[in-house]
Amino acid sequence: MADNDVVRLIATSSNGCVDSTDVTITVFPLPTPQITGNDDICLGDNLQLSASGGATYQWKLNGSPVATGPTYSSSSFADNDVVRLIATSSNGCVDSTDVTITVDSRWRNLQLSASGQNGTGNLRYLLTGR
User: Fold this and answer.
1) Residue 68 in contact with residue 59, Cβ under 8 Å?
2) How far does Cα 42 stand from its chain's mean position?
3) Can you give the pTM of this predicted structure?
4) Taking Cα atoms as reference points, which of 76, 84, 91 lies closest to residue 51?
5) Residue in 75, 74, 66 with CA at minimum distance from that of residue 43
6) Are 98 and 111 in contact (CB under 8 A)?
7) Mean pLDDT of all residues in 106-126
8) Which of 41, 72, 100, 119 could share a disulfide with 67, CB 3.0–4.6 Å?
9) What CA–CA distances, in Å, run from 66 to 32, 34, 73, 106?
């Protein structure tokens, strides 16, 4: 069915009387959920995701409910976690979208130290991370 389609109900009684009524169908559009925020983070970084495209929102992490509302943040994401946003429109229509989180754990604690001479000579860098 499409928006504004008309459905006619025709009823006939056991005595042969006939009556009918028309109903115009209203089809509401689905919400268009969108997730914004950086989905590529370092291990332990706080990530805040924001929702749009609906009236109310539910967030799921790997299938489990974790939050409601227009934002969701956490600092305990793991690589390849899947965040699903379920948006409901003001008319009760529901749609969802997913984002996969990429967590780079190689440079969690980056330290830089340097030594050398003022203006001349060799400069040595030491990069460490985990």
Assistant:
1) yes
2) 19
3) 0.71
4) 84
5) 75
6) no
7) 57
8) 72
9) 21, 17, 10, 27
